[in-house]
Amino acid sequence: MKKLVTLVLLLVIVGATWLFIPKKAEQASNKPGMERLVLTGSSTVAPLAAEIGRRFEALHSNVRVDVQTGGSSRGINDVRSGLADIGMASRALKENESGLFSFTIATDGIGMIVNRANPVTALDRQQIIDIYTGKITDWQAVGGNADPITVVNKAEGHSTLELFLHHFDLQNSAVKAHVIIGDNQQGIKTVAGNPDAIGYVSIGSAEYEAQHDAAIKLLPLDGVAASVENVQNGAFPLARPLNLVTRSEPAGIIKAFIEFARSRQVDDLVMAQYFVPVAH
Amino acid sequence: MIWSWHNILSLSRTDSILAALLRLCALLSAAIVILILLFLISESWPVLQHVPLSRFISDASWHPAQGLYNIAPMLGATLLSSLGAVLLATPLGIASALFCHYYAPTALAIWHRRTIALLAGIPSVVYGFWGLTTLAPLIGRLHPPGVSLLTGIVVLTMMILPTVALTVDAALAGVPAAYLRGAAALGLTRWSMINGVVLPAARSGIASGIMLAAVRAIGETMAILMVAGNVVQYPDSLFASVRTLTANIALEMAYAMGDHRAALFVTGLALLAMVLLLVGFAEFFKQDAAHV
Amino acid sequence: MSKDFLATVMIWLTALLISGFFLYLLTDMLIHGLDRLSWAYLLDAPLDAGRSGGIAPIVTATAILVLIAIIVAAPLGLATAVLLTEFTRQKSHFGRFVERSLDVLASVPSIIFGLFGNAFFCLFLGLGFSLLSGGLTLACMALPILIRSAVEGLRSAPDEYRLAAAALGMTRGAALLHLLLPTAAPALAAGLMLGIGRAGAETAALIFTSGYVDRMPESWFDSGRALSVHIYDLAMNVPGGDASAHAAALVLVLLLFTINSIAMGLTRRWQRGRIHSL
């Protein structure tokens, strides 16, 4: 009997909070005159989206743009579940993600990075594969110093990882990594702090950080220099679109934001992040 | 405390209302832990439905994107790093507590105690930051990449040292003064008194202090995430990079969906089970010691 | 060399090592942190991912998080402590059940609170990444600390007070309000401070509940970045963010030192008070 009472009480309390709080949450977001846009997803797109959001807010004083990072697939998932208004994805939609609407706001590439102090200036496809599968473990074997290589790989769930593996036709379980990182910036920081490290990150992020004194350099991929120009003219082999994703045909403030993000008004922001703006 | 429900000092009307209210609050407090367990299980259910538990230790590797969910290397890394930290922190912590009680002049002992208490209050992210910027490059010079099992153990040791020192300190304070007088009367040296009388008398307190520290080490997330390198593998040396259960959750949670996310909740369940096992063990130990 | 002498040397060395490490850590933080620390740093918003600018929105978010945690946990904790000490016999099933479950709660790792907070507050209750979710998660974490210190404080109040109150015909509520709680006040305050310290130092429980947004929060449904999360982000994800991370770490550690010192002072006062009253 006592147990039953306890159980009923518990259910009542949980039920009461459940009924009570979401209502308040809705009220807060529906506060008259105030609109909130929630963007979640790719850590590559997030800094750009945050900058665009800031400029958008300056033009629309009644809008607040919240940007949370969480990976491309997560962003797409959040849009589907309604947790986010707009998802950010640093890749094209997959086949099983049809039914969503995606809008490209910029183009980016994925480049190999090493520490600036590393004398190696180029690696060919096979060398990179051998380094990542643990067949080459010393920089000497590819013309560098006699130091063991620190292989930096990305954690599961990042589209950068998927695209990298796809390009080199690798399975993630075959990769022999020494350090696993999450965001692009974390990879850059790891490589900048370790003279023997090699990693791969968004070219935009890498160029941005290299200009801000991070001790890294980008290596050419398949003989093509990893630069914004080569991504722009389509010569770079590992390029990808940066997309905003919505669940339904965008309308209202969502539509306004996406149109703004694709307009000439944000070209300078896109270029400041070392991405390629969309053709207008 | 001398009051009870069936006392002649029975509750007045207002008091019984108050009691009912308090009961409700207490129930809510006690329900949190059950709620936590409930939600961990319900969130991991999607993957547990079609992946048998045994696969979480028998799969080839941890690659949730490929449907492989082996968490055994992370269990191992958690155990190894915590064990290493406990082994290092225990003698240091006991020595520090002995210093306060039997070696230091009173004024110095007070300062030492305050220092330890302040060390206990430093947040784990600051220890992790220190480990990342100072310790990891140092160890990296010895053997790259620097972020490794060893770095993790050292940082964890720093973090649990105050826990050991403070609990042992309290245990030593509970040793009856008569024991010490007896030892002194026998003409024992200070170390013989400590080794033969004080430490055995305080052993259950010391043991529970070590358990508490071990629980803290197993549950530590941020510091170990920042300094251990996060590669899922059984370490082949102290310089190899490892990923603990806690780091696995912190690293992948933000990006996980579907089965991957559920598998991370299974990681959480495994972690909780480990901690509860240890707490239960400590409880058992305490009861056992009480009988002696 | 005798064993006794050896032990003495080893123990002094250990004590020296610990104090030395503490001093080193403190000076290291001061040297690196003071560079960036200024009034402007405390009052400005972070710029360029935190590399420049200040930490005003982050300190604000931290304060709101801790405040929510304490506002929720303190009454709940006090009520539970009062029930355990004044309204149940220690051996009763209910009392033992509550105490046992609180012991377990106290040993739950913070990352588990993060998972729970994400699943329960953010998703199940629909609060999303918000200060409210983070604060409630922290409340769950701080609860066992608050209850434990309140129970200790109440248990050490002399039984004579309870007898005298009963003899005067006071209700237990009145006795509690006028006698027992004032007696236990320093212990309650010390516990409160410890709870604040624990909540303020937390990182792992917050990254999936209150989120990363480093802007000035406008309501408690906004996502906000705690100081400890800011340090983590600068240290791990921002190349060239070390200087700012040092400054933020210094601010956090100084805040926590102050809070913990107040807690220690209160505990000392309370213990001294107890000795006098005996």
Number of domains of chain C: 1
Q: Can you count the beta strands of chain C?
A: 2
Q: Which CATH architecture of the largest domain in chain A would you pick?
A: 3-Layer(aba) Sandwich
Annotated CATH topology of chain C: MetI-like fold
* CATH class assignment of the largest domain in chain A: Alpha Beta
What's the total count of β strands of chain A? 10
What percentage of amino acids of chain A are in beta strands? Answer: 15-25%
Please write the string of helix (H) and strand (E) elements of chain A: HEHEHEEHEHEHEHEHEHHE
Based on helices, strands and strand pairing, what is the structural class of chain A?
alpha/beta
In CATH's first tier, which class of chain C applies? Mainly Alpha
Question: In CATH, what is the homologous superfamily of chain C?
Answer: MetI-like
Distance between the termini of chain A: 72 Å
Class inferred from helices and paired strands of chain C: mainly alpha
What fraction of the residues of chain C are assigned to beta strands by DSSP? under 5%
Protein chains sharing the most extensive interface: B-C, 88 and 90 residues
Specify Rg of chain C, calculated over alpha carbons.
Answer: 22 Å
